Amino acid sequence: ENTQRFSSSPATVESFTSEFVRQLRYEQGVDLGFASSDDLYQALARTVRRYMIDNWLDTLSTQTAKGAKAVAYLSAEYLMGPQLPNALLATGLAEVARDSLAALGLDLDEIGATEVEPGLGNGGLGRLAACFIDSLATMDIPAVGYGIRYEYGIFRQTFVDGRQAEQPDPWLSKGSPWEFAHPDMAVEVGFHGHTERYTDAAGVERTRWVRGDCVLAVPYNYMVPGYGTKNVNTLRLWSAKATNAFDLQIFNAGDYEAAVRAQTVAENISKVIYPEDSTPQGKELRLKQQYFFVAASLADFINQTLPQGFDLTKIHERVTFQLNDTHPVIAIPELMRILVDERGIDWATAWDVTRKTFNYTCHTLLPEALEVWSVELLGRLLPRHLEIIFQINEEFLAEVRKAYPGDELRARRMSIIQEQPERAVRMAFLASIGSSKINGVAELHSQLLRDKVLNDFSELWPSKFTNVTNGVTPRRFLALSNPGLANLITEAIGEGWVKDLERLRELEPFAEDASFRSEFRAVKAANKERFVELIAQRDGIELPADAMYDVMVKRLHEYKRQMLKLLHVVTLYDRVLRGELRASDITPRVVTFGAKAAPGYKMAKEIIALINAVAKVVNHAPELQGRLQIAFPANYNVTLAEKLIPAADLSEQISLAGKEASGTGNMKFALNGALTIGTLDGANVEIYDLVGDEHFFLFGLTEPQVADVVDAGYKPGAYYEGNRSLKGAIDLIASGAFSNGDRNAFEFVLSDLLGKDRFLVLADYQAYVDAQDKVEVAYADQEAWSRSAILNVARTGFFSSDRSIQDYLDRIWHAKPQPVR
Ligand code: 26M
């Protein structure tokens, strides 16, 4: 019935089939009988796409005609996941497509499996951006996502002898049927050069930036269909291309190789996504990427979206630029440059307008994750922007000194420029000073931003700070990924939940209904079967379907504490080896890990090797057969998440309190009926409050307790010496039991744990093992467990990204829906 809203073409099986065959023959140029699976996928995607285009173009014209305020989301990453299923859901064409293909003897799922997901993000931050643009479209908000069209996505992870090896991800090698290239709309972006003062015709002293070199930013548009609405928004990703002028000069001078080299340098800008997501390396190419997409996006919005001759001193009435972390923060001096240097607007007015136009979302608490750019590099690459930053800083520090006379220490602490260990620009400070609102991504995180990371700023400007708790799109992470549960929910309470997730509350009474619980268990069991089949095919890993699925999937980071999960597994094995635990008393469990490590993050890579080493032994230990198994499929990505999360019983959210800004995987698991074992960190706190203590396995130090332990001088060795079970697990690893007798194999990991343990793994070990013992007991009562699982689903509707977007609208953006009629 969803198809009715897409009136552009009658979506009958016949018309769909004829469009599909037309695409195959006249666009792909192949005969059905000879089509490869990629031919079929391309034709199918183009067929589905065709049903969205009219609505997309109507959305664009409606929005320009109305002149309403728009949201421009600036993000270096969008981790989109597979596009075809989402497009089928949004257009309501899934059944028509399935029947149409079946009539041709083809299988929709088989063709769909050909899609390579666009991995244009590292993890949580990029996936959040993808959820947000889905919600913005679904809620009819005029919005555009701006970002980078990386030619290579996040690396494909493989394991070689249990160690991570990275492979390139050439996701565009067969072309993308979802993109619309617009070389005609390319924008020039400059770098390097110098600045000079001059007097303009009116006799005014001005500054101009004489660019040293220049690249073209070519926009590629992607449709972002809303669910259950005609609105289709735009994601605009920029690709770098050398200008003609760029290489022609050199070419004409006869230096052909240099010309080609110059072209390569220019086009490298959008070549590959940086795989670090917590320790920025300060690399020149990364800063180029940031300025490249931001400069192109601002120029695009000002010159293409705003009406000709628009008075830019009113730009904040027509757009709000949301800064997704500090990666796009160079937009702040860029807008100042446009207003002051190019438009001749006076500095004070320009600064006032700029601050009204930007808002900043912070996604971290780790000091090492805060981006800084060396003054030397920034001044070389963007000399005018550095001058502007210095001037912003000068005026800002004058304000600080006025507010806190004599407090020179504070002024130095708050300066945008850090002096040690080198002079560098603190991007989070620039963002805070240049924005109207600053938000954290969960209640606890926002509180810690105010009280710790940005405390000086929250004292100066308390009302600038707010919270918007993250969310996830229920379209992709429930309706699409878990059709069994989605159908069960819809049978019980109707389909309104897909756009109004709080309606899941209506499921609460069904938790008391034994037949509903049994259907709920049947869905979970079927999801496990589906996952087991996939993992057998994908990774050649054999898993039992009738086990507890205990899942920890997220980037590999010490603060997330994959080591704690591993120590629990080693503890169980050690207890069995010592005869303290009968294997037959263990509830059959599959412990599943999924995690990529940043290629340069040594400790993370060693932990991956250790997990794989333990898996190899535990999975073959005769004592543990059918009882305890580790599955570590390589290359965890959105495609895998969509199959794995619906199969999970237990969600591992075990970061050290005060370190995980929010987490969003935690929300996806709860929404799909997994129970959480977790600390009071990030959004876990809000999940715990909503689902209730009886339905959540809480453990571990709280954030203030962590601060006390650290202040008192944390000694991990004391925990090791004082805890036989912990000592047993660590000694077992150190004995070479998982490394063919090599006692030094995991020295790097163990010596750090025993000597430093920055993230208090050992301090939380016993509490975690105790909580796992409670899991074991609770799981034995399947009726009570499924009751809890259903209540997790019923009580986590709050975590829809639609609610997050509503909060952004109410607290920060103040833009209104513009539905297409
Ligand atoms: C920065 C500079 C150079 C190269 C890469 C980066 C970079 C890229 C991604 C830094 C951080 C990146 O992502 C951080 C991230 O994913 N943070 C997570 O954001 C989620 C959404 O708000 C939160 O739920 C997670 O708690 C938080 O860790």
TrEMBL record:
Keywords associated with the record: Carbohydrate metabolism, Glycogen metabolism, Glycosyltransferase, Pyridoxal phosphate, Transferase
Carrying N6-(pyridoxal phosphate)lysine, the residues are: 668
Q: Where is the signal peptide?
A: none
Would the keyword Ubl conjugation be found if you checked this record's keyword annotation? no
According to its UniProt record, the EC number is 2.4.1.1
Keyword Transferase in record:
yes
The GO biological-process annotations, alphabetized, read as:
glycogen catabolic process
Judging by the UniProt lineage, the source's domain of life is Bacteria
Catalytic activity reported: [(1->4)-alpha-D-glucosyl](n) + phosphate = [(1->4)-alpha-D-glucosyl](n-1) + alpha-D-glucose 1-phosphate
Q: Which cofactor does it need?
A: pyridoxal 5'-phosphate
Pfam family, any one = Phosphorylase
A single Gene Ontology CC annotation of this entry is: cytoplasm
Q: Which PROSITE patterns match?
A: PHOSPHORYLASE
Q: Which GO terms describe its molecular function?
A: glycogen phosphorylase activity; pyridoxal phosphate binding
* InterPro entries membership: Glycg_phsphrylas, Glyco_trans_35, Pyridoxal_P_attach_site
- CDD domains named in the record: GT35_Glycogen_Phosphorylase
Q: What does this protein do?
A: Phosphorylase is an important allosteric enzyme in carbohydrate metabolism. Enzymes from different sources differ in their regulatory mechanisms and in their natural substrates. However, all known phosphorylases share catalytic and structural properties.
**Family from the record:** Belongs to the glycogen phosphorylase family.
User: What name goes with this protein?
Assistant: Alpha-1,4 glucan phosphorylase
